[in-house]
Amino acid sequence: MERERMKLANATRDAAAPGMMMMKRGIGRSGRCGRPGAGARRGNDAVARAGKRPAPGDRLYNFSAGPATLPLDVLEEVQGDLVNYKGSGMSVLEMSHRGKDYMEIAAKAESDLRELVGIPDNYKVLFLQGGASSMMASNCHNLAMATDSADYVLTGAWSVKAQKEGAKLLKNANVCATSKEQNFTTIPDVKDWNLTEGSKFVHICSNETIGGVEFKEVPDVGDRVLVADMSSNYLSKPIEVEKYGVIYGGVQKNIGPAGMGICIVRDDLIGNARADTPSMFDYKIMADNDSMYNTPPCFTWYISGLVFAKLLKDGGLAAVEQRNIEKANVLYNAIENSDGYYVSPVDKRYRSMMNVPFTLAGGADLEKEFLAEAKAEGFEALKGHRSVGGARASIYNAMPKEGVEALASFMKDFKARNA
Ligand SMILES: Cc1ncc(COP(=O)(O)O)c(C=O)c1O
Questions:
Q1: How far is the CA of 268 from the centre of ligand 1 (A)?
Q2: 214 CB less than 6 Å from ligand 1?
Q3: Residue 389 has what pLDDT?
Q4: Active site residue 229
Q5: Could you say which of 58, 151, 229, 282 is catalytic?
C-alpha cells in the first residue's frame, strides 16, 4: 500500500513539473518587460503565439474586485498537491471532510487564522457557505428578534444591501447615518450617528468595494454590538477583534477562491437565534459542529488555510498592512500627481487601500480608450463597477507591488500620449 502511494506521489510530481516550469519561465520573462505602459503583460511573445489568451504560465496583473488574484506561491502549492495531496492518494477535491487529512487541514486553517488575527478565545470562527450576502440575513436571525431594531450606517452599495436585508427581517432597520448625499464618497462622523434606543446591533461595511471608501478606525459605539462586513478588506491590516460583536465577509477578494464566508462572532451572541432560523444560518449549530453541520466548501477552506499560513510566514498582518500602504500610495500618488488628468472621487480621509476607483477628467470616450489600452497591455479587470463607471483597481493582498507600479507607469504614459 505504501509503495502504491509512493508511486502515485512520484507520478503526480512528474506530471505537475512541466506546468510549474512553464509558470516559472513566464514569470522570469516578465522581468524583461520593463517599458512603462507596455510591461504589464507577462510574456507578451507567448500571448501573441497563443492568440488572445495568455499561455498558462503567463499571468496577467488581475485587478478584479472579486473573485480576485491569489498568491502565486499558494497556487503553485495547490498545483503541486492537486492530484495527490501529500501522498494521501487523492486530491483535496475528492476527500471526505470527515477524514483525518481534511480534518487536519480544517483545524490548521482555523488555528492559523486565530494566530494571524489574534482572535480572543471568547470568539468563535465559523466557515460558512453563502458568502457575505447570507450573513447579512443570518446576523439578523442570530442577533435580533423580528420585533427588534438594528442600526445601519450607509456608506455605499454593500451597506445599502445589508440594510435592505435587515428591513426584511427586523421591525426597524434604522438608517442611522448615510453619505448618500455625498454620493457615498465619505463616511459620516460617528458623533452624528442617530442610534436607536435599544437597537440590537450597529452595522457598518468596513470597506465599500464599489465606492472605495474605507473606515480607518473602528467607530466607537460604546456598549452596543458592532457588526462589520469586512469582505473586501479582511486581513489587509490588523483587526481589533474585541471591538466587534461580529466580523463577517466573503473570502473571494482578499483570502481565497469564492464559495465561503468567514464569521468571527463573540460567544455571548451565539445561542440566541430565532426559533425559525434555518439550521444553516444558526451560528450555534454551526459552532457546535465546527462549521461542518453539512458538507463544507472544502476546497475553498483548504486554499484559504494556505493563505493564512503564507500571511503568517510573511510577517503577519502588520507586515501585510505596511505592504498595502505602500501599494496604495503608489496608485494614489499616480492620481494626485496627474494634474487632474485622473480623479479620485473619494474623501482623502477614507480612501480605500484595497479598491481604488478613479475617473479620467477627459470624459467617457477617453476612459473607454484608457480601459481598452490597459486591457491590451495586460492590466485585467480595471473597468469600474457598472453602477459607477470609470476605472477601479482592486489591489488586494495578493497583488504584487510591481503590478501597481506597472499600472502607475501605464497611467503616466497614457497621459503623456493623450493629454
Ligand atoms: C463589501 C462586500 N460585501 C458583501 C459582498 C457580497 O459577498 P458575497 O458574494 O460573498 O455574498 C461583497 C461582494 O462582492 C462585497 O464587496
A1: 26
A2: no
A3: 87
A4: yes
A5: 229
138 lines ligand 1 (CB under 6 A): no
Pairing of strands 202-205, 172-178: unpaired
Q: Which of 58, 151, 158, 327 is catalytic?
A: 158
Dist. CA 49 → ligand 1 center (Å) = 37
- pTM of the predicted protein model: 0.89
Q: Which atom of ligand 1 is nearest to the CA of 251?
A: 10
253: annotated active-site residue: yes
pLDDT tens-place string over residues 203-233? 999 999 999 999 999 999 999 999 999 999 9
Domains of the chain, each with CATH number or no CATH: 2-70+321-418 (3.90.1150.10), 95-312 (3.40.640.10)
Atom 2 in ligand 1: residue holding the nearest Cα: 231
**Set of cell numbers at residue 248:** 463577517
Confidence of residue 46 (pLDDT cuts 50, 70, 90): very low
Q: How far apart (Å, rounded) are the C-alpha atoms in residues 347 and 129?
A: 34
Q: Provide the grid cell at 292.
A: 461542518
Q: Which residue has the cell 498537491?
A: 81
pLDDT tier at 388, thresholds 50, 70, 90: confident
Instruction: Compute the mean pLDDT over every residue in the chain, rounded to the nearest whole number.
Output: 90
Q: What DSSP string describes 69-133? A: ---HHHHHHHHHHSSSGGGSSS-TTTS-TTSHHHHHHHHHHHHHHHHHHT--TTEEEEEETTHHH
Give the pLDDT score at 52: 59
What confidence score (pLDDT) does residue 53 get?
66
* Share of residues in the chain with pLDDT > 70 (%): 86
The single-letter code of the amino acid at 54 is P
- 211 in ligand 1 pocket by Cβ < 6 Å? no
* Cβ of 256 less than 6 Å from ligand 1: no
